[in-house]
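Work Package 4 report. The design task specified in the project plan requires that, given a folded chain encoded as structure tokens, an amino acid be chosen for each position. We show below one input record used in the internal validation round.
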């Protein structure tokens, strides 16, 4: 029995603007619980939440939806410092994305969590790693983080990925046989970002070559 095809890793920096509205979010079993949590704002059981999931699983999209609902500022964790706490919390709600223990200013995050706790407001942290994998040296910070609401997104499943492909082709007014999508699923990096970018790549290639997007065309362009 032949070995399964090796997934293609995308290396091109493709200029694709991703739609981030609530209506653009595609629900599946992998993200349904996380979406319900974001939609429940402001009726959260606590004012700090930690949204985790693999790269390309939709964390940024959900964070964007929540920022629109809450009026939150959005910043990357690597920019967090003690001096930035008050400016970042100026609207009373804050998203800090891509938190990881290697670039984390633990002291600043500890003071931020204390400020949210004592003065009110809301904080959404996003990370590729679950809290259990973080190496936090400040014991009180670890305690504060464990008190945050854990919200997990699973790896994109075939239902979600297939719908992302379908919608991306439809948005570009490209009619493709469903077999093309089934062909791509096991061969392309399994992330929402990769799915969106691969459709843009195929679209531009089909225009440049004057050909329809078929399984054979995809195999030629993507060198499967």
């Amino acid at each position: 029995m032949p070995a399964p095809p090796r997934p293609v890793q995308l290396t091109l920096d493709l200029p694709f603007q991703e739609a981030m509205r609530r209506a653009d979010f595609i629900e599946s079993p992998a993200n349904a619980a996380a979406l319900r949590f974001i939609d429940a704002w402001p009726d959260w059981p606590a004012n700090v939440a930690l949204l985790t999931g693999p790269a390309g699983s939709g964390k940024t999209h959900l964070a964007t939806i929540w920022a629109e609902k809450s009026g939150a500022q959005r910043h990357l964790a690597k920019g967090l410092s003690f001096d930035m706490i008050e400016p970042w919390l100026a609207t009373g709600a804050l998203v800090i994305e891509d938190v990881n223990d290697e670039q984390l200013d633990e002291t600043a995050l500890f003071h931020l969590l204390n400020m949210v706790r004592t003065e009110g407001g809301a904080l959404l942290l996003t990370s590729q790693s679950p809290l259990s994998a973080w190496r936090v040296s400040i014991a009180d910070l670890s305690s504060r983080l464990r008190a945050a609401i854990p919200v997990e997104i699973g790896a994109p499943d075939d239902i979600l990925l297939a719908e992302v492909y379908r919608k991306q082709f439809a948005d570009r007014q490209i009619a493709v046989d469903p077999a093309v999508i089934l062909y791509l699923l096991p061969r392309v990096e399994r992330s929402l970002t990769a799915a969106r970018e691969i459709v843009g790549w195929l679209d531009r290639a089909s225009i440049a070559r004057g050909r329809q997007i078929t399984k054979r065309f995809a195999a030629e362009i993507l060198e499967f």
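The chain is about 40% helix and 10% strand. Validation will be extended to a larger panel in the next phase.
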